[in-house]
Design goal:
Blueprint: H1 2-19, E1 22-33, E2 38-47, E3 50-55, E4 63-68, E5 73-76, E6 78-83, E7 87-90, E8 113-123, H2 127-133, E9 141-147, H3 167-176, E10 181-186, H4 195-207, E11 211-213, H5 224-231, E12 237-238, E13 252-253, E14 258-259, H6 261-269, E15 272-273, H7 284-292, H8 316-325, H9 330-335, H10 339-344, E16 361-374, E17 380-394, E18 397-401, E19 406-407, H11 417-425
Parallel strand pairs: 1-4, 1-5, 6-8, 8-9, 9-10, 10-11, 11-12, 12-15
Antiparallel strand pairs: 1-2, 2-3, 4-19, 5-16, 13-14, 16-17, 17-18
Helix pairs in contact: 3-4
Length: 427
């Protein structure tokens, strides 16, 4: 009799496990998944960190947690391919183990970002420290573009030292850390030489990874036509593409207000145009005429750092909302921060909601109201809507829930959780 009882208990437990075959079911959200051409109200089921079903109606009785996404947009987790997160305490190190970079987890999940790429804060010499200090201690998936300068973005003379721009060593370290390094970065060089670009291209070719160019600090500016047509390869990335500065040639002719013909040719060739908004690297005077003429960025990114986060840029949702305000539709904006970005960094396991894919998900709301979006010049665009993050799921786990739309709410464990429960019992 006892054996029969035990068998019944085991069978009941097994049936319960079978019934709960989903960890999370997201119900009733408007799914936008550009890779799979989905733009419709759908349910999504997640289990063991993966997307296991995308369908019109998924039974919630099979789920441990349900998320009511009615009236919200459900997208792949956002990918920001240009940020600065090699934070540290060295006051004279700028973005490389310095105070101008930011802690990634404080700026990612609350905006739907599950993956970001540090854009050149570390060079081949400083990358091991960056990995130990930041990558290994972040919940956010942090990848990296390796600076062609060995010291990385230490500022001042360090970033002008052409003798520290070593394509061979950069490629060597990129191959050594291939799970984390997704490209090479050129930035902040102020001379008339092509040395930084050429060394970076050598490194990118040797390691089979793209190069991102933050181009131009010289006056007169170096030719971006030569950069696009004679230096860069298809798949290389031109960031700050809507910048308008005295020391950098712009892509829009400021007299005719049209995109220069060779820029369109470059994009057709395969050069990637990335926003890289930043502190002073985006101007509506470039972006508005470009979009009006049908020229769109391949990817939207923030150039997030300690200053840009408090100025016109704000965060990735603010930048996405700006592009909606000047002419991009929502599916196009979502594609530019998900599937396009994943392909640009050659991480095509990310940026989509295919069955079997990593369960990185952003759930976004569209707030209606009166909003003002301005750039660093003070030019302002008014809009009636902007995006807001309701929930972020990374690797199948809810890491941000703005308004408690998960049922039941499961809080992460902490050393304080047990004393808190004991305290609540006495209330």
């Amino acid at each position: 009799m006892r054996k029969l009882y035990i068998l019944l208990v085991v069978l009941c437990a097994w049936q319960l496990v079978r019934a709960q075959q989903y960890a999370i079911v997201i119900k009733g959200g408007h799914v936008i998944d550009p890779k799979n051409n989905i733009d419709a109200v759908m349910d999504i089921a997640i289990n063991e960190g993966k997307i296991v079903e995308v369908a019109r109606n998924i039974e919630t009785r099979q789920a441990i947690q349900t998320v009511d996404a009615t009236g919200l947009y459900v997208t792949p987790g956002l990918i920001d391919i240009h940020a600065h997160v090699f934070y540290g305490t060295e006051p004279d190190h700028a973005y490389s183990n310095g105070m101008l970079s930011v802690v990634p987890d404080g700026f990612t999940f609350r905006t739907g970002v599950t993956t970001l790429v540090d854009a050149g804060c570390a060079g081949w010499r400083s990358f091991p420290l960056f990995k130990r200090q930041v990558i290994d201690n972040s919940q956010t998936r942090v990848l990296a573009l390796l600076n062609i300068v060995g010291e990385g973005m230490r500022g001042g003379p360090y970033e002008q030292n052409t003798k520290d721009m070593d394509g061979k060593m950069t490629a060597l370290v990129a191959r050594q850390y291939r799970d984390y390094v997704v490209g090479v970065k050129v930035a902040h060089y102020e001379g008339p030489e092509w040395t930084p670009v050429d060394e970076a291209i050598n490194a990118g070719t040797a390691a089979n990874i793209p190069v991102m160019i933050d181009f131009g600090g010289n006056f007169p500016p170096l030719s971006i036509e030569e950069l696009f047509m004679k230096r860069l390869r298809p798949g290389d990335i031109f960031t700050h593409c809507f910048g308008q500065l005295r020391t950098r040639e712009s892509i829009v002719d400021t007299t005719t207000k049209t995109v220069k013909p060779f820029v369109r040719t470059a994009q057709k060739k395969g050069i990637i145009f990335d926003v890289g908004y930043g502190e002073i690297s985006f101007a509506f005077s470039q972006a508005i005429p470009a979009l009006k003429s049908g020229f769109y960025p391949n990817s939207i990114s923030t150039d997030m750092h300690a200053r840009s986060a408090n100025l016109a840029m704000k965060d990735i949702l603010s930048v996405m909302s700006k592009f909606m305000a000047i002419g991009m539709d929502l599916p196009g904006v979502i594609q530019s921060v998900t599937w396009n970005s994943a392909r640009e960094i050659k991480r095509e396991e990310l940026g989509h909601l295919s069955v079997g894919a990593i369960a990185d998900v952003a759930i976004l709301g569209m707030r209606e109201g009166k909003f003002g979006f301005y750039d660093y010049t003070g030019y302002k665009v008014e809009a009636s809507r902007k995006l807001e993050c309701e929930m972020t799921i990374k690797g199948g786990k809810i890491v941000y829930d703005l308004n408690g739309i998960a049922n039941p709410i499961v809080l992460p464990r902490s050393p304080l959780s047990q004393p808190l429960r004991e305290h609540q019992d006495h209330l």
